[in-house]
Amino acid sequence: MHNRQIRTGFPLATSCGPRWPAAARLAAIAALAAGLAGCSFNSPDAASGSQSVGIEGVTAQQARGIAREAYLYGTPMVASYQTMYAFNIDKNNPQYKGPFNTVNSIARVFGPEDTAFVTPNSDTPYSFAVLDLRAEPVVITVPPMEQRRYFVLQLMDLYTYNFAYIGSRGTGNGGGRFLVAGPRWNGKAPPGITKVFRSETELVNMVGRTQLFNAADLPNVKRIQSRYRIQTLSAFRKQRAPAPAAEVDWIPAEPPAQLRSSLEFYNQLAFLLQFAPAHPSERSLQERFASIGIRPGEPFDTENINPALRRALQEGMHDGQNAIDRNREALDGKTDALYGDRGTLKNDYLARATGTQVGIGANSREEALYPVLEKDGNGQPLDGRNKYTLRFAPRGLPPVNAFWSMTVYRLPDQQLAANPIKRYLINSSMLPSLKRDADGGVTIHIQAESPGKSRESNWLPAPQGPFMVALRYYWPKPALLDGKWVSPEIGRVAR
């Protein structure tokens, strides 16, 4: 991979970026009167054309375009729900963590058995919660902690916008009580609240990360995690609770393997829209969804629909996934522009969907940068049949305020791979145990087999087949944000 700063956006004309991996060209579709922000199409598809789909005023060509829009718009929501369902709704799921509005901390780092989402972070023990803000706000309490320990509680709405941060960078390490309110709440914060955050959606994912310095530090992390607390506002005030929100018949989440091909996707999206009041800038978009039957909270029957509409939905889903794949390849591993709040992403649904598939739940660039290395310095895909090195030059370690790490994930599922020494990453906390080069630099050996006892301290095990390396730079300094410091390339070792 060649490190270069690339901003994601909707390109001009009839393309939404190159596909990843290389495949057939993106199918062209006809322009809608009001399309996705910044991306228009003007090449009609003869297969769709003006054929009726059984809905007055909607042609197959138009339905295909709307289905594409809905796929890009809804991919983050449906993927978010997969995790919510596994962690907080389906009590029979082995990854179930607990009910809504409770902190569910994992007092260990993630390993190959943790597969609820792609590219899990194995640097920092996680704390998870889904906030249900329908009836009333919640109050999140965090304890004070030592200044050198990085922590962050990331608040992500159903759209996957990172709308608020509680943590070392955002609010400091002094602790506090933070009120999180949904889109329909009009009350006032009571005394004792440090800060108020507003969410656009009624369901919110909270992803907490608490820095672990080493294995001996785990009891300290457990102690901190035990003091993260979530209360409803009425419980915080010690007052009578308001009327509960209406009961919800939670539908099963679509399995990840089917997410990109099953028309159940559109039913999932319709179900989730009831928890996301339309943003003013998206009302016309949701009206277009409704024109083909995708309405908030209403079942979308994909079994008994007009065959022409079924084909249009399938084609639209295919078009949307092609756009994501092409965009992902164009990024060449630079993912920082895929994550942020609405003001940052500016309704760039292609960026949001691409970010979901690269790694859902990633932080905004000011909180963390995540370069992804999928190729070596010669542009060849990384493969465990080869041996590689990555070298940080003397005085050339990543410039961060918190810490950095590099983690190997097997492809294509982007999960951690088991290895004989159970090491999935190398990070800055491990520097004292890493061997330095003669000039003071640090060389990391990335390969499936041990590089030998003398180099094993610097060995980052790789799977036998295709893989990628995700770099994580927490609380990056200006040199990283401005592109003055760039990640080193991975070099293939000659046989």
UniProtKB/TrEMBL annotation:
**Signal peptide range in chain numbering:** 1-33
List the SUPFAM superfamilies.
VPA0735-like
Q: Which UniProt keywords apply?
A: Signal
Specify the superkingdom: Bacteria
Domain DUF1254, which positions?
100-231
One protein family per Pfam: DUF1214
Q: Does the keyword Signal apply?
A: yes
Q: Does the keyword Signal apply?
A: yes
Q: Which residues form the DUF1214 domain?
A: 367-477
Q: Which PANTHER family did the record assign?
A: BLL3101 PROTEIN
Specify the protein name: Cell envelope protein
Q: What organism is this sequence from? A: Achromobacter veterisilvae
